Amino acid sequence: YSEPCCDRSRWSLRHMHVHTPDAASSINTGCSQFLGLDTIFWRSWYNKAARKCVQAFYFHANQWYTSITFIMFNDKPPEKPVIVVFTGNSNVGTAAIDRLLEYGDDIVIRAVVRKAKNADPKWESLGIETLIADVRRPAQLQKVFDKSNAVLWATPCTQDRAELTEKFLQGCIDHGIDFPVIISVLDAGGGDAVHLKTFADVEGVAHKLAGKKVKEQFWDTGKQELQPIILRCAQFYENLYGHFPTLRQGQGKLYLPLKMDGRMPAVSLKDVGACAADILFTPEPWANQTLNITAGMFSGGDYTRSMTMQGSRAGGVTFEPVDESVAVNALKVAGMVDWIAEANIELLIHYRDNGDKIGRIESDVERILGRKPKPFAEFAKSLRGVL
After folding, report:
1. What is the pLDDT of residues 17-64, one digit of tens each?
2. Which of 62, 259, 265, 315 has the most C-beta neighbours closer than 10 Å?
3. From CA 225, how far away is CA 182, in angstroms rounded?
4. Which stretches of the chain score pLDDT less than 50?
5. Mind giving me the DSSP string for 162-220?
6. Cross-strand bridge partners of residue 185
């Protein structure tokens, strides 16, 4: 039995007598009767992080009481962690979901899209929860973040991405998300290119809100904090898909504004998704870190030699350097939105002109995945029959 004590965190403990057959087991819902707490309230808080819940409560109990015994039973195992991918139909979101599916029944995957038509029809059969929500509508976010503690923010390719990121992070604070994983670009803030500046603004919002108290979904302990994890990604190998129309029409020529000796950083989209997924599954070691996701520096010749050796296109592929305007126009012809085509080529030129600096950026892929990044040759091999 405990002595009457002061109120803490909106609730009060008066008298409690319970016992513990197994300190790592789940808490019997009957315990809520001893505590004078609502059963749903207790379960919701416990299910978010079973071990953390037990340890945190036991600490407070010992701090506030001279004598206390804890009751715990094995009647209910912890619920599976819920990992949210926002948005699920983005390129990074899709890659992350592919990796998360490898965890099987150990997790619940929740894919969020802005419109119902954007949902992948295969998600339901794969057991993936699908929700329709928009960060511009805060009332929709409670269901998105319910019972989750880690969320991927596949930063949208819009000019107001920093504003949307702030709305997303405010939603995390309001609904109990400690670990938002945010996609950025390599060398964000390192130059005047549009993507570098807007992603620097995105990261600035994350740094500004880092450390803010996060409200638990049903329990405000005042102990949780927003701990953003930023993934600075190189350009994807898969970005070459945008050049396929000119590859087909130009007799196997890859037109890039790289110059013959110019290089740019690149990485497999699958590796980006894998890094994001593995961090989401175990986010604590990566809290408040900015990580570089790159496989190294590549020249136009590196690309075309691999594509030729791997048989990406019958007759081979050759590289031809072009000026910026030609490269931008090629992407526009392929159907890319004007400002995105211009911003993508501008970023590529930044990487080309600052190759020595960018080449010194150390990749964190191996540290996260326990293996080296996938080589471009593996992607080139996957193009057989596509070109």
Report:
1. 333 333 333 333 334 444 443 333 333 333 334 433 433 343 344 444
2. 265
3. 16
4. 1-76, 218-222
5. HHHHHHHHHHHHHTT--EEEEEEETTTTSSSSHHHHHHHHHHHHHHHHTTPBPPPSS--
6. 233
